[in-house]
Amino acid sequence: MSESVLKTTRLSKLYGGRAVVDNIDMTIKRGEVYGFIGKNGAGKTTLLRMVTSLVRPSSGAIELFGSPDAKALQAARTRMGAMIETPAFFPKLTAQDNLEYYRLQRGLPDAGEIGRVLHSVNLTDTGQKPYHQFSLGMKQRLGLALAIMGNPEFLILDEPINGLDPTGMIEFRNIINRLHREGNITLLISSHILSELAQVATKYGIIHNGRLLKEFTKSELDQQTRGYISVKVNNAPMAGDIIREQLDTNQFEVYSQEEIRLFAFFDDPSVITSLLITNGLRVYSSNEVKISLEDYFISVIEAA
Question: Which DSSP symbol is given to 87?
Fold first, then answer.
């Protein structure tokens, strides 16, 4: 069984008597990229702040790398990096000088560490440009460079692509995928830009009003969002019988008296329409329906 990198048990945070994070049980195993999904104000950042010790929990427990007690937990936090909201950098210093300040502050002995992390986030060519002249994408990547100093095993990123243009999102996504693939880093990424999250995450958790509604793997998501071909006919139950008997498949659902949903034949849906017409059915329409992570997120929220 894979090692648990982060485990929370009934973790809660109250502000003014209101539970911003409400009894959350979450588990992230080594090697996973955990996509933490929720609307603004759902409790994502508060949970991440508790994990990184920026906020004290009201109740519940946090384990990092299997370490539950306070002393061991603090030591375990040295094995993780984080970018929570916007990191603080000196506006008139260069990328190199800003990271040098933090390297000395953290007591990292290897001065070559700065060059390594700048290379990892594609910021080796900034030269003498001061931080205040950086684009938003460059600022976010410098924040990521700071988070990965010291080779963390576990990396927490809070809304890392918020505000980036499409080019910046793609570049950041490629960096994340490379860090996960080459650096063997476990990641926890919170975001409400679900189309981007779907391209990097291997596991997901949906939080709403402080409660963790659901956790699921990428393969489970693929099953829930695989899409279908919607065929409108004059007699859907009969259409189902014809498809089952003549194509020897059960990959369909009779959704209503006039609609059948097929989970196969995406390459050539005309096979279905031709078959039904040949057997005397009237086909009104045939459309491929795609289900996105956004659609699934909304359905989970509405069900709750």
Answer: P
| Cα gap 157→160, rounded to integer Å | 6
In the block, which residue shows the tokens 């911003």?
20
What is the phi/psi pair of residue 91, to 5°? -65, -30
pLDDT by residue (tens digit) across 32-88?
Answer: 999 999 988 899 999 999 999 999 999 999 999 987 777 788 889 999 999 987 778
Cα separation, 62 vs 143, whole angstroms: 25
pLDDT tier at 111, thresholds 50, 70, 90: confident
Distant-in-sequence contacts of 280-283, Cβ < 8 A, 24+ apart? 281/233, 281/234, 281/235, 281/238, 281/239, 281/242, 282/233, 282/234, 283/231, 283/232, 283/233
Q: What residue has token string 């924040």?
A: 143
pLDDT bracket for residue 183 (50, 70, 90): confident
Burial class (CB in 10 A: 0-12, 13-18, 19+), 184: exposed
C-alpha closest to that of 288 among 255, 258, 266, 257: 266
Rg over alpha carbons for the chain, rounded to the nearest Å, is 24
Q: How far apart are CA 140 and CA 137, in angstroms?
A: 5
300: helix, strand or coil: helix
DSSP state at residue 263: S
- Residue 71 — φ and ψ, nearest 5°? -65, -45
Residues 130/174, Cβ–Cβ less than 8 Å:
no
- Phi-psi category of 195—alpha, beta or left, where left has phi over 0 and alpha has psi -120 to 50? alpha
pTM above 0.85, yes or no: no
The pair of three-digit structure tokens given for residue 203, joined into one six-digit string: 């596991």
Chain center to CA of 149: 22
